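Give me structure tokens for this 183-residue protein.
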Amino acid sequence: MKKDTNIILEQIINKKARELSLEKENQRHIGSVISMLREEWHLWGRLNHPLVPALEVQCSISTKGDFVRAVWFPHPILITTKRRTEFILLANEANLEMHSGGRFWCNEDMDFAYEIVLAEEIVEKCEDEVAQQLFNIPLSHLQDLLVPLTMLKTDMWRSDIAVKYLKELREKGYVDNSDYNLW
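Here you go.
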């Protein structure tokens, strides 16, 4: 990635971190010292909802070649071996309405994550869109998933209820919490 593009990206990240009250840690690679973290930026924040505990989310942003990659994930890990299929089914449902180019996935390390990869050219030409794609869109999706993720983690719901909740939220823009025994 070009030096000018990295400067633009750094400015976007700093601005969004301030706007969204995200903590930011820089991962600098100096000289021949290479970080084992393979990321240039690491951010974290909290998602809040009045009916479930707050959820810490983290973001790893890295550049490689002509691309920037952001991965958002809850911390600590939510998935257990026993419940992995439930989370995969929720991720699959969440991906049905993705129009931003990002995607949710679950891996063998039990991570539930949102990932987006953008070309360097977009960073150079569309700063506002890059800010939306790297921050606003993933955080909005994770906020929508906060209740289903929490309920799956605590074994209070199975994937069919989590998927139903997400579909209703998308279709209506709200859910009746009493229908889901959240009151």
